[in-house]
């Protein structure tokens, strides 16, 4: 028997001796976290480096920004931009569609999110909310406003909600930028915002 025949015979034998198929993993159901959606979402996002601040209205957000970001020496300009007109008292509006180079000195960007996912602490963002695709990546610090009623349990629910929606750009984002590529040492803000604060409206 030639080497070729030996190889083919071995392959055939391997196929004949395949193990019994394993059962598929248990997929979480939509009611997996329903009794504690907010808590699970907050715990998961905090666990990946984000910060959750519960608020009741826009005034709470404005006060938090004034007390937190205005007092911290982020940069001499303390430039804050937002796509949310409700926050125009503390941030620039009307920059959407401009060159991303004009956002190079943005210390804090505040945007809205379509919904959040309790399973992994991610928020779903599309270009209609970003102002510019580069906005959540080019800023030093990122803040996202999310209504607590817009939290789904799992990624399966998230994809069902997205469905056939049309958008040019979209992403799930969970926490600040981070990397552990070098010596498995975790670095925050490696390729994008150093912090991510989520204002959860309850």
Describe the structure.
Strand 4 and strand 5 form a beta hairpin. The chain is elongated, with a radius of gyration of 23 Å. The chain has a single domain, classed as Rossmann fold (3-Layer(aba) Sandwich). It has six helices and eleven strands. The model has no long low-confidence stretch (mean pLDDT 86). The strands form three sheets. The chain has a five-stranded parallel β-sheet with strand order 1-11-6-3-2. Helix content is 26%, strand content 22%. With 202 residues, it is α/β, with parallel strands linked by helices.
Oligomer: single chain
* Tally of separate helices: 6
**Main sheet characteristics:** 5 strands, parallel
The number of distinct structural domains comes to 1
Task: Report the uncertain regions.
Answer: none
- The CATH topology is given as Rossmann fold
Strand content: 15-25%
Tell me what the CATH architecture is. Answer: 3-Layer(aba) Sandwich
The end-to-end span amounts to: 75 Å
- CATH homologous superfamily annotation: NagB/RpiA/CoA transferase-like
CATH class: Alpha Beta
SS-based class: alpha/beta
- H/E element sequence: HHEHEEEEHHEEHEEEE
Mean pLDDT: 86
Give the overall form. elongated
Radius of gyration over C-alpha positions, nearest whole angstrom:
23 Å
InterPro entries: FTHF_cligase-like_sf (IPR024185), LUD_dom (IPR003741), NagB/RpiA_transferase-like (IPR037171)
Pfam family, one: LUD_dom
Protein name: L-lactate dehydrogenase complex protein LldG
Region (Disordered): 11-30
């Amino acid at each position: 028997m030639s080497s070729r025949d030996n190889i083919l015979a071995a392959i055939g034998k391997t196929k004949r001796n395949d193990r019994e198929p394993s059962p598929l993993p248990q997929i979480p159901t939509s009611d997996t976290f329903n009794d504690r959606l907010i808590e699970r979402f907050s715990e998961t996002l905090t666990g990946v480096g984000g910060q959750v601040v519960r608020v009741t209205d826009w005034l709470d957000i404005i006060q938090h920004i004034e007390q937190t970001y205005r007092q911290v020496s982020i940069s001499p300009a303390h430039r804050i931009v937002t796509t949310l007109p409700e926050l125009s008292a503390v941030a620039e509006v009307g920059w959407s569609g401009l060159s991303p180079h004009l956002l190079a000195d943005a210390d804090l960007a505040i945007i809205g999110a379509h919904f959040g996912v309790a399973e992994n602490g991610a928020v779903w963002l599309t270009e209609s909310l970003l102002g510019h695709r580069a906005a959540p990546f080019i800023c030093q610090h990122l803040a996202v406003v999310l209504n607590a009623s817009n939290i789904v349990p799992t990624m399966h629910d998230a994809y069902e909600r997205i469905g056939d929606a049309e958008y040019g750009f979209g992403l799930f984002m969970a926490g600040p930028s981070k990397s552990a590529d070098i010596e498995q040492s975790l670095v925050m803000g490696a390729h994008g915002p150093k912090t991510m604060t989520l204002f959860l409206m309850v």
